[in-house]
Amino acid sequence: MKRRNFLATTFAASSLSIKAAEKNTETPIAVGILRGQPLISGPDPSSLAIIQALDGTAAGYAEISINDGSWQKIQQEHDGLLAYETHVLKFLLPKIPPSAKLSYRVKASPVDFSQSYSIKRAPEQSSETFSIKTLDAASPETRFCVWNDTHENLPVIKALHDLTTQSKPDFLLWNGDQTNNVLDVDQMAEQYVCPGGLPIASAYPLAYLRGNHDVRGREARHVENFTHSPNEDFTYAFRSGPVACLCMDTGEDKPDDHPLFAGLAGFDLMRKRQTIWLENIIQQPWFISAPYKILFCHIPLWWSDEVTDHGYYWFHKPCREAWLPLLMKSGIQLVVSGHTHQPAYLPKTDQRPIAQLIGGGPKKDIATLTEFIANKENLTITMKKLNGDNLHSVIIKPK
Ligand SMILES: [Fe+2]
Ligand SMILES: [Fe+2]
User: Fold this and answer.
1) 29 alpha carbon to ligand 2 midpoint, in Å?
2) pLDDT tens digit string along 40-64?
3) What would the pLDDT profile of 204-223 be if each residue is shown by its tens digit?
4) CA of 308 to the centre of ligand 1 (A)
5) Sign (positive/negative) of CA torsion 101, 61, 49, 381?
6) Which of 8, 130, 299, 320 has the smallest CB count inside 10 Å?
7) What are the CA-CA distances from residue 6 to residues 2, 3, 79, 251 (Å)?
8) Protein residues with C-beta less than 5 angstroms from the ion ligand 2
9) Ligand 1 centroid to residue 149 C-alpha, Å
């Protein structure tokens, strides 16, 4: 559907054959070529990628082990050349089984590339080894956490990370506005992969969604190099235990013909493509059979009023008009969003046929962590402030 900057992964199940670093190289041994710890994103086990931020240009590879089996080498090959990158290394994984223990690490080496036949590879450096348990649609239970609108506020991200780690989720969903804008490629690893060096999604996989701020700036077309979702498309779906999750990109918060975009916005086209995708995905047996069905999208589809004239979309009426008939047909029980920086729960009414939950904003007093816990009886959703105060609790019964 979209171009892919990272092409097919080579998957070598054979023993490792990493060439040892050359001893008599003039290349100085770089200290700390790896920046922070690797992030793993997908979150479905059929579409995982490991992303490692770098503090300099390096070659590298990942190693994975499934259920404590032998380590396997994952290389990223593009037209016969292996990864040699400046900002991040990104490794697409083969399909991993559900409910598997997936252990992984990244190894990278600075390279002195003075001439075409004078290439010297410094000793490799390794990340820590992390393990996740892969998602399983057949599991009777799941639990996960949702962040939104962190806007590069590191103390808030750190607080959310601490709470999320305590929650031991199956995955973390980051529901847009990670950034304020995307203007400088040198900032993007910090914005998307390892803010403050924190392992924000190392021990559980990430479900990434864009917000309207993440489509702004000259580097916005490269966000997919620093994140991962299936087919590098920000509209995708997956299932974790009894919960089917639709993730849909709401794009900008103004119409495409707004003068601020200088004719560079094409979200009407994206919405048409998404609507065709939605019509198809809700007919899939794995989706139909899910007891709980949730839509995640950054900009809400409803607010408490219908006022659209704010100079930008407070809620996204064009997306609502495009998707609502299919969302109704699909049995979606709740729309989960952010964007307004005002936490809110808008229950289902005659005018609003699906309930809408909206998370908080980037400041400590309005930031929220939303926890989802699903089992056979209920899907329990709790939205809390960073100090633990409960803002909203929602209980959904299985369909
Ligand atoms: Fe925001
Ligand atoms: Fe937003």
Assistant:
1) 42
2) 999 999 999 999 999 999 999 999 9
3) 999 999 999 999 999 999 99
4) 17
5) positive
6) 8
7) 12, 9, 10, 23
8) 177, 211-212, 339
9) 4
